[in-house]
Design brief:
The protein is mostly helical and 520 residues long. The protein contains 21 helices and no strands. Helix 6 crosses helix 8, helix 13 packs across helix 14 and helix 14 runs antiparallel to helix 15.
């Protein structure tokens, strides 16, 4: 390689960075919506089982694979997979998903992230303070998104301005590298995020019973909705699939980001305790903070039925519609609204910079491009790719990108990872690699879980999807006729992007082979 690879400054730095990658909008937007829509306590049992059987094993697998590949100066999945099986000329192409997935998520996630920055400003300015019902707050959101012209907004101008600010903030952080950019951001943003979340949690827990007309709508019952188990839900395949999908999304496993972050570790760095700490930090943020802020607050002010109806109507509605309405009814509404949305923004930006890193690392590691040039290439390409999600939001483009980049390929990539790690690399060798330099040994039953239970669980998820969902999705049976051309174009664009990445991998390895032959 033409330059020395960047490194993390400390163990705390990598833990905070991986936790920052995991602690994102999924913790505070997606998790509450999924939990509420699937019955609260009914959702939590499959959720915890998925965490133990999928989340933790995949977290340790990705930390270990990343550190292993980093020893060969590879920071992305194609190179890391090639390091595992050097004699196989095709295995690196499976790793393309580990660049494709983060890039696809980045191009719509950054736009959604910019909404949280905009709403934090709106809260301070009192722009939505007079709104008092779901219909008006929903109209406010749709106007901002450019989906309708109303009394609040005309066109996408303001939304696009906040997108530009957010996009170039992300590029600026990535520009300064692992230690100077991402590490420095996470050291500031993660503590501030927790402070904001604890302020809001304390305020929610003090709500009591605001309405005498509805005494059952109190904070205790709101928390009970989350934590009273419903064992009958274990019979529902849908709840299991939703819970497993949330674990993938919240821990950032199956994406390729952790592989890249862990590649900057040294050979002797611990991955067992560090991975467990990062996962535990994320779960605290998601369950204790994310679930205990918005769900009880919405329960207290709107009741269980209305809350579930809102959650099922859209992933963003609880956070961008219901939560502002709740906060509008409290003293210091502007302050608490700002705290809520700046919390979301900090969670978002620590995740989005991690999504950009695999593409940048690929250019640096496999093409010997210096970081400044790599950032320039990534920034230009990503900026262009962001535009369809912004201007065609109402045509279902973002939902399509989210399904393929942020849902389906997460499970596919995770399945590939665990098969390569446990069966191709070999479980005995993999077990030794996990514990190299470890301060903590895993219980031996996790060796059995990683080799058998986790891959079977993943095959079950994929099999259930193909059995229940693939025909309606592939043939766009639930897509309106006016949106079908846009969905088809999005799919063709994704195929083209995947092919381009495969070609780049082929070119990179051809360059390396020619370079190696020339040096002999």
């Amino acid at each position: 390689m033409s330059s020395i690879r960047d490194t993390w400054g400390s163990r705390l730095a990598i833990i905070m960075a991986v936790a920052g990658s995991a602690i994102g909008l999924g913790n505070f937007l997606r998790f509450p919506a999924k939990a509420v829509a699937n019955g609260g306590g009914a959702f939590m049992i499959p959720y915890f089982i998925s965490f133990l059987l999928l989340g933790l094993p995949l977290m340790w697998i990705e930390w270990t694979l990343g550190r292993y590949g980093g020893g060969f100066e590879h920071g992305t999945a194609p190179g890391i997979f090639h390091s595992l099986l050097r004699k196989n000329r095709f295995v690196k192409y499976f790793g393309v998903i580990g660049i494709f997935g983060p890039l696809v998520i980045f191009i719509y996630y950054t736009y959604i992230e910019s909404w949280t920055l905009a709403y934090s400003v709106f809260a301070l300015l009192g722009k939505y303070s007079v709104l008092s019902d779901h219909a008006s707050m929903q109209s406010f959101l749709r106007g901002f998104q450019g989906l309708e012209s109303n009394a609040y907004f005309h066109g996408l101008g303001l939304a696009y301005f906040f997108f530009l600010v957010t996009f170039f903030l992300n590029i600026g952080v990535i520009y300064y590298g692992i230690r100077g950019g991402i590490e420095r951001l996470c050291k500031v943003a993660i503590p501030l995020l927790f402070i904001c979340a604890l302020i809001l949690l304390a305020r929610v827990l003090l709500l009591g019973t605001p309405s005498e007309a509805y005494p059952e709508r109190n904070i205790v019952n709101g928390l009970g909705f989350m934590w009273n188990p419903d064992f009958s839900a274990l019979k529902s395949a849908k709840v299991w699939l939703e819970a497993a999908g949330q674990i993938f999304f919240t821990l950032s496993v199956g994406i390729g980001v952790i592989l890249t972050y862990a590649s900057y570790l040294s050979r002797s760095d611990d991955v067992v305790l560090s991975g467990l700490t990062a996962a535990g930090t994320n779960e605290f943020a998601e369950i204790v903070l994310g679930g205990s802020i918005i769900i009880p607050a919405a329960f207290v002010f709107f009741g269980q039925g209305a809350m579930q109806e809102v959650a099922r109507s859209g992933t963003f509605n609880l956070s961008f519609v219901t939560m502002p309405l709740v906060l509008n009814q409290l003293p210091w509404a502007g302050f608490f609204g700002f705290v809520w949305f700046i919390l979301l923004f900090m969670a978002g930006v620590t995740s989005s910079v991690s999504l950009a890193q695999p593409s940048v690392a690929f250019l640096e590691d496999e093409f010997d491009i210096d970081r400044k040039k790599a950032i320039g290439i990534f920034g230009a390409v990503a900026f262009v790719l962001c535009q369809p999600g912004i201007f065609l939001l109402g045509k279902g483009v973002v939902d399509e990108l989210d399904f393929w980049g942020g849902t389906f390929f997460l499970v596919v990539f995770a399945t590939i990872e665990v098969i390569l790690f446990a069966w191709v690399f070999g479980m005995d060798k993999a077990w030794d690699e996990i514990h190299h330099g470890a301060d903590l040994r895993l219980p031996r039953f996790y060796k059995w879980i990683i080799k058998y239970v986790t891959p079977l669980f993943l095959f079950f998820i994929l099999g259930a999807w193909f059995w229940q969902e693939w025909i309606p999705i592939i043939f766009m049976k639930n897509v309106t006729p006016e949106c079908r051309p846009y969905i088809l174009a999005t799919r063709l664009g994704l195929v083209a992007l995947f092919v381009v990445l495969c070609v780049l991998v082929k070119i990179a390895w051809r360059r390396q082979r020619i370079k190696a032959e020339a040096s002999q």
